[in-house]
Amino acid sequence: MSYRILDGRRVAETRLQRLRQELERWSGAEGHRRPFLAVILVGDHPASASYVRAKRRAAAEVGIDSETIHLPLDISEEELLGHIHRLNADAAVDGILVQLPLPEHINPDRVIAALDPAKDVDGFHPINVGRLVLGQPGFRPCTPAGIVELLRAYDIELSGRRVVILGRSHIVGLPLANLLLQRGMDATVTVCHSRTPNLAEITRTAEVLVVAIGRPRFVTAEMVCPGAVVIDVGINRLSDPTHPRGYVLVGDVDFEAVAPRTSAITPVPGGVGPMTIAMLLENTLHAAQRLYYPSAQLSNQPATTKAPLASAAAPSP
Ligand code: GUN
Question: Is 55 an active-site residue?
């Protein structure tokens, strides 16, 4: 069977070009400046460091300023929260991203909940998650949004389709399921995870199979229905001494075996990853534009003139 490669690099590049023009217009308008993204990176995890570099490089290319706040692996949770409070209150910062995963001793839920939801360009804050679930405007998590936009770019219909998601993470599986269930998206969604029995039986029912399970080449040909669309979210480093870098990147899908069975499939790298970055930068412009929190008294807006104190306003007796 012939299959299409869903080229996330190309689709993301087109979106980034459009974003660059939009940013030029927006940042050039009176009273505006270039958006600013603060990225918090804890420790030296090589994959996380490389994602952060890719995000900042793409930001610079479209006209978004950014800074990495690189913190030591043994930083305390309180110190990390202190950085977030400072960035929340900084009028020069539009978006804040905390690169995950965090070290074991730090509770990611506490850290994410400390973000100003109006600066939460990853869409991970409980308020943004709640807005997603309820179909209200808010920041959408970048990888799920990127998957939806990639499918849209290739005119792959989701309405009424059976979608199976492998993985229930807060970054991909869970928000993607909610996004696809929205009115207007109208997919029929099944979420599987590591404790789902008879996994292959379920994945074979998928017209669209999204794999975000974090295990290299986990999905094999027998798990895929002929003609399915397969979205591979995994990026795994497999050590390979013959490669100059010492490793190769592989997805959660055994691409060579699975691709010929599909009608369309994403490559790794060059599939979902670039779309995630494009969505992050679109979210950062939206944060600067106060698109989802127009009436909130944001911590990065100048305080409104305070009403005079009653005693000062009252006429003297
Ligand atoms: N780690 C893996 N994916 C992501 C992401 O989309 N955002 C953040 N902040 N961390 C991640």
Answer: yes
Report d(CA 140, CA 129) in Å as an integer.
8
Asked whether the domain spanning 142-273 has the same topology as the one spanning 30-118+290-310, the reply is yes
Residue spans of the chain under pLDDT 70 = 296-317
Q: How far is the CA of 141 from the centre of ligand 1 (A)?
A: 9
Answering whether pTM is above 0.85, one says yes
Domain 30-118+290-310 belongs in CATH node 3.40.50.10860: yes
Q: pLDDT tens digits for 119-132?
A: 999 999 999 999 99
Q: Is 263 in contact with 227 (CB distance < 8 Å)?
A: yes
Token representation of residue 212: 């975000």
Q: Which CATH architecture is the domain 142-273 placed in?
A: 3-Layer(aba) Sandwich (3.40)
Quote the ligand 1 centre to 175 CA distance (angstroms).
Answer: 13
Atom nearest to 98 CA in ligand 1: 9
